[in-house]
Amino acid sequence: MRNILAVCTKELYIYFVSPIAYFVCFVFAAISGYLFQLFLIISSTNNGFGNGVMQSTFGIMATILLFFTPVLTMKLFAEERKSGTIELLLTSPITDSQVVLGKYLASWTLLIIMLGLTLIFPFLTQRFGPLDAGLVFSGYLGLVLLGSCFLAFGLMMSSMSKNQIVAALTSFGFLLTLWVIGAVSDREGAIGNFLKYLSFSEHFSDFPRGAILIKDVVYYVSFTCVCLFATFKSIESSKWR
Question: Residue 84 gets which letter from DSSP?
Fold first, then answer.
């Protein structure tokens, strides 16, 4: 655990000595805040309720995460490969799994900071109508689980590339495909159900409504674990190249 925290601390330091962390956090909070303000205005003029405001806000925040999480993970391994420091890292007295988990924990910590900046939204919403605390909890839980999947896949792509831009674009393209695949699928039967099951948006839709379903949690956790395992294997195989 000490080695994981050491890697995590190092990566967080790299995040915050460069403009990346500040840029991502600021832009994410600014875009989310602007759209949240619009939802508040629409809700107040239409006599809406606080729950509706937060449901719309959670939905748009999930979409924004789709664009920003590849930026957080694109350089975690790709930069190490490009600069040649990956060999030093892999020959240090630390296991490959600890390296992967440490880097992932750093990006996950930054995700929590990003979401933490939006915690003011529920407090402001209460001024416009009653707000269900359970809905707020499930909405943020859904964002954490969804963001964890995005980060795990982005980390996997970074471990397979020497170019940060390639890693980011590949991650975004694949995640976007899994985001919209449920909506564009109009097939009935087993194929349609399978495509909808693969869709991130289909599994996220219940969280903003205050419903936490086991199948959705299992999907996100399983996807994250599979991506982290694939990342570990990718790093392990690089020793033999």
Answer: T
